[in-house]
Amino acid sequence: MEISGIISAIVIGIVIGVLGRLVVPGRQHIGVLWTILIGIIAAFIGAAIAAGLGVADTDGVDWIEWLIQIALAAVGVAALSKVKVRH
To answer: What pTM was computed for the model?
Structure first.
């Protein structure tokens, strides 16, 4: 992966994190930086999963890849929020 790909993954990760947080109902007990970090991680893992499924590179917008990434971010935000509430 080139540096431009990493930078775009970080920017997309920020968007993915915010969208993932919006999908999770209720109040999340994590900060913005955690949301961004989860989004970045979800973007990388989601891209790898989409590539493994063969849906990463399609004509036009890669909706399936985005949905995978947002779902992963939502799961990550919900999981971390539950961990933060317990402590």
So the answer is: 0.81
> Within the chain, where are the H helices?
3-23, 32-53, 63-86
CA geometry: angle 15, 43, 31, nearest 5 deg: 55
Q: Is residue 28 within 8 Å of 85, Cβ to Cβ?
A: no
Secondary structure letter of residue 30 according to DSSP: S
Q: What is the pLDDT of residues 45-84, one digit of tens each?
A: 998 998 899 887 778 778 888 889 889 988 998 888 888 7
State the Cα–Cα distance between residues 43 and 32, nearest whole angstrom: 16
Whether residue 73 contacts residue 19, with contact meaning beta carbons closer than 8 Å, is answered with yes
